[in-house]
Amino acid sequence: QGFRSEPARHAVTVTAGGLAPLAFQLAPQGVLAGYVGEEGDSLAYPAGSYRRPHASIRIRRIELRGPGGLRILTPRAGGSREIFTSYLEGRDDAAGPHYSFVQLPEGEFELTILAVGHEPHVSRHQVTPGVVPPMTPIRLRPSN
């Protein structure tokens, strides 16, 4: 996850009985990706348990501030399958509760998530190209 292929695509001609030579290099890239998890307390989700992606959350905006400026995502409805394609193409993307920022420089970033009916979430993350630390699902607090 902390690397991208160069080139991103490679044209290949396949012939009967022949070999199709391919050459890719892996280049480190900074990545910050994750998802908003289902609501629930420590009784519903004890330490170490899996928190599923939130099925009905309506995220309005995801912001990432840090070296290089501000990046903004507006999640589209639907699943997260297209995020993988966006990742391979080197594009930031968000779908439903999932988000992915790619090709980030090294440094500290501030992630802000704004969702309907929830308090804003703000957290800080250190990004190092080629290193992807595990990220726990983000839990949003319902607003009063």
Rg on CA atoms, Å: 18 Å
Order of helices and strands: EEEEEHEEEE
* Apparent shape: elongated
Number of contiguous helices:
1
Mean pLDDT: 87
How can the largest sheet be summarized?
4 strands, antiparallel
Low-confidence stretches: none
User: What's the helical proportion of residues?
Assistant: under 10%
Class from helix and strand fractions: mainly beta
Number of beta strands: 9
Strand content: 35-45%
Strand arrangement within the widest β-sheet reads 5-4-8-9
Distance, first to last CA: 37 Å
Q: How are the secondary structure elements laid out?
A:
Blueprint: E1 3-6, E2 25-28, E3 30-35, E4 59-66, E5 69-73, H1 81-88, E6 93-95, E7 98-104, E8 107-115, E9 121-127
Antiparallel strand pairs: 1-2, 3-7, 4-5, 4-8, 6-7, 8-9
Key features of this structure:
144 residues, mainly beta, four-stranded antiparallel β-sheet
Give a written overview of the molecule.
- This protein is mainly beta.
- Helices cover 6% and strands 37% of the residues.
- It is built from 1 helix and 9 strands, in the order βββββαββββ.
- It has one helix at residues 81-88; strands at residues 3-6, 25-28, 30-35, 59-66, 69-73, 93-95, 98-104, 107-115, 121-127.
- The protein has a 4-stranded antiparallel sheet, with no helix packed on it.
- A hairpin with a 2-residue loop joins strand 6 and strand 7 (98-104).
- The chain is elongated, with a radius of gyration of 18 Å.
- 24% of the residues are buried.
- The model has no long low-confidence stretch (mean pLDDT 87).
Summarize the structure.
The protein has 144 residues and is mainly beta.
